[in-house]
Amino acid sequence: MLREKTSLAVWSVSLGCPKNRVDTEHLLGSLGGRIRFVKQKGRAQLIFINTCAFIESAVRESVQTILEIVRDLKRLKKRPFLAVGGCLVGRYGTTELAREIPEVDLWLASRDLSLWPEILSRALFGRDQSQSGRLLSTGPSYAWLKISEGCQHQCAFCTIPKIRGKLSSSAQATLIAEADHLLAMGVREIDLVAQDVTAYGQDNGEHLKDLITELCRRPSLLWLRLLYLYPTGLDENFLHFVKDTGSPLLPYFDIPLQHAHPEILSRMGRPFAQDVARTVERVRRILPDAVIRTTFIVGFPGETDAHFATLCRFVEDMRFSHVGVFAYAREEGTVAYDYPEQVPKDIALARRDELMAIQRSVSQDLLSGMIGQRQQVLVDSVNDEWPGLHNGRVWFQAPEVDGQTYISGPGVAPGKVVEADIVESADYDLTALT
Asked: With left for phi above 0 and alpha for psi between -120 and 50, is residue 162 left, alpha or beta?
């Protein structure tokens, strides 16, 4: 148990999606102004690891991270308090994990997310000293706002509903207060995140449109971005709402389509299997300047060469701005785990590489057309490798998942918004000068 001090040295890592990062920021923020981050684990009093366990590779990364830290701590005369939370704990449970890795001092289960601050505070200090708060870890330019937990969909490949539970939306008043806190800290971009943003409020009577409208009234908000939009939630009514709302709401649509062939989509349990192209066409008809990001799973059980060829043609024809491709991972506890016709891993990986090569060509073409344009750039951070260079983004680049814009010139600094000329493009990135 730690003594109460004016400061608490913390080393932390958050694996996986932005939703995990938000959970970490809330937990560390609950310790108040006493937090002092350190770069060396040996100088920490508290080490916190927020894990991911969505797929097998994420489980391996989480376990490896924990074991590496445990190994490092064994070399110290005085070891920090080690706490681990997140999806790994939600998937495998505290009992099993505590038996396998007894060096961890505290396991925080996903089902106890609202109690994390109290549990950690009692473990550290012997009593509950937690408070509401959030410690921003993304720098001065952007922050994620998690609007709901869990998921109501039953996709055949997904473990999230079992790990995180059913849909649980946050109260609008709570989210607005948190957004105001972020904006007061100087944040210029807020990105709404959830397992399905379009499902927000379906469980508690809140309404996504009301939340967006209220957020858009904040004069200091430069960009409002929606991440993870389930295709069936993008009806004409909602798309017209986005169009009519305008700035600061961006016409940026993160729509995980997962495949393009109706047979594979049906096997995946995706209810829009027969009209996947119509979803894209509907967005572009109502918002011609919209940018669409999507993800696909290749090597799903039963995917033939013909199914994959359909997907390749779809990506070539649709010309998405951003695409992520994942090789199917067979996960215990999912419906698809027991499907016949499992695709060999080497074939799935080869298909992933082939599809990404197609998208790389599309991205190169789209970005080369940006050269010579003058764009607004939100500056995120100083570039670690080149003096005078900064990392930033134009409006159609979401933080950490899309490409970025390397920018230099007068007035460029983290958190600033500058006008700049696009002078160069690469596969996924741009270069700009003020």
From this structure: alpha
